[in-house]
Amino acid sequence: MSNLHPALERVTDRIIERSKDSRAAYLRLMEEEGELHKDRNAALPCSNLAHGFAAAEEDKQAIATRAGPNIGIISAYNDTISAHQPYGAYPPRLKLYAREVGATAQVAGATPAMCDGVTQGKEGMELSLFSRDVIALAAGVGLSHHMYDSVALLGICDKIVPGLLMGSLRFGWLPAMFVPSGPMPSGIPNKEKQRVRQLYAEGKATRAELLESESKSYHSAGTCTFYGTANSNQMMMELMGLHMPGAAFVTPNTPLRQELDRAAVHRLAAITREGNDYRPLAKVVDEKAVVNAAVGLLATGGSTNHAIHIPAFARAAGIVIDWTDLAELSAAVPLLSRVYPNGSGDVNHFHNAGGIGFVVGELLKAGLAHADVLTVAGQDGLNDYAKEPWLDGESLAWRDVGESGDKEMLRPASDPFQADGGMRLVEGNLGRACFKTSAVTEDRYTIEAPCRVFSDQRQVAQAFRDGELNRDVIVVVRFQGPRANGMPELHALTPVLGVLQDKGYKVALVTDGRMSGASGKVPAAIHCSPEALGGGPLSLLEDGDMVKLCATTGTLSTTADLTKRTPAEAPPPASGTGREIFAMFRIGADEAEKGGSAMLAAAGL
Asked: Are residues 204 and 231 located together in one domain of the fold?
């Protein structure tokens, strides 16, 4: 008899039924494509094949004769993003690991990888969401060579992981695995970083003091250590069975990191069609895996950005999930961890306290995750991920996690931080939006106040500096949706709104834009759909309208009579910083709840 929680079973069954036709069509296409390309030497004429291994040096003969599996590497390396800097050294190492098991590896292609931390509050942020489609397309270009038997995906950060997954899923007859490089060591305490940011917003700290503080936080190679979108990505990939177990939060350039990388390559060589343990990506990423990803996100208080990314990568696999599903799961999934910005410790503290292995074990015991899934790892489904990696001498091994090493960071399902996962759907005559409650105190779950309407986050900052927001206020920032300007994160508003809240005012944000994975203590209704551009309800609001945002009742509404108003005029499309050449993505994008993707919309997925 199944011990699945009724909500998990109900939501999963609903997703399976809703996705029946699209999932069947996807699997049929993958079956056909896999059959067509199952013999890569026969599929490629000799001239084509010779082009593909001309520069393979010592691996040329092995690739030419198909002596063993050939692993394609899709890399998002650059050395501007700290998380991706280690990947510069990966291809030569991965090739060595492949040769250890009679395989070969080639870099199939590269994708862009932008950092929301660098572009936050700047024009480049308006390219951010659509970089996910670009990454998916770039991954598709690399894999279109049909030279490969499996795929190693080198990417960690915000749009990179969803983009790599979306692109790779269209080549889902190939086994694929993410190979993370891990987080940087911990820097200054997160509360100190937050304190200096707010002082700077108030004009009480200099730019030099702010930069010194930020540099002590973001200080070396590896992922930023707060639990934002990048590290939430890593959590989800483990819950979907797309990492070696426990690989997410092992720091770069350590012996354990190296052995996990080696194990990933060895595994990619073992799970190809030619072996006896074939695990194509299309079969690993199924409805249960998508639900597991959502549950892991909710149980750990992960990034709100994934309310957009989960529907997008699920669609690439023919699976349809929406915010109602996420909200219903959130009501059943307890919050098991508090990682900054939801707590004081970072992902290194989380990992040392038991980390993902502990969370997976607790979810499985509570019937809140599907154990019976196909993963890239062992034979025991998700149970293989309820353990932690370690070095037994020089050998990689996995062991039981045991109890939480820090109850302020990580708790069992029987004694959670809160009873729900902290991501709620709010809706009403202003549309549908997401409200992340896991970092908001319960006395701020309901905010009702006159609104002040803006069409740009810089206008908010100016009004703050001019003292115009020193009151109870709901700040509405509209024309920030996918079709308006690419749906930028508005994380730069966090210090401003935090200052107002700390002064004792009742403050909230309502926007059709995104907040950061690092959004925190200020109540916010984000991703509001339908977006303002095109006549969405936010385009009808006026300064002074009473707006109510309530996480408890799931309400996002105004008492104003919107039926008698005409939509406000949207700002003209911005140009510069390449925004004009992304116009095709804005024109073609669909709503945030569907994933905000122009690529998927154009493909009819």
From this structure: no
